[in-house]
Amino acid sequence: MKSAVECRNVSVVYNNHAILEDITVTLAPSSLTIVFGPNGAGKTTFLNVLIGATSPSQGEVLICGEAPSKARRRIGYVPQKISPSPYFPITAHKAVLMGRYGRLGLFKRPSTKDHEEAEAALVEVGLEGLGEKPIQELSGGQLQRVLLARALVGHPDLLLLDEATSGVDVGARESLFALLTRLKERMAVVFVTHDVSVVGVGVDAVMCLNRRLVSHGKPEVALNDKALQCMYGGNVALFSHCHTPHVHVQEHKEV
Question: Number of folded domains in the chain?
Answer without folding.
Answer: 1
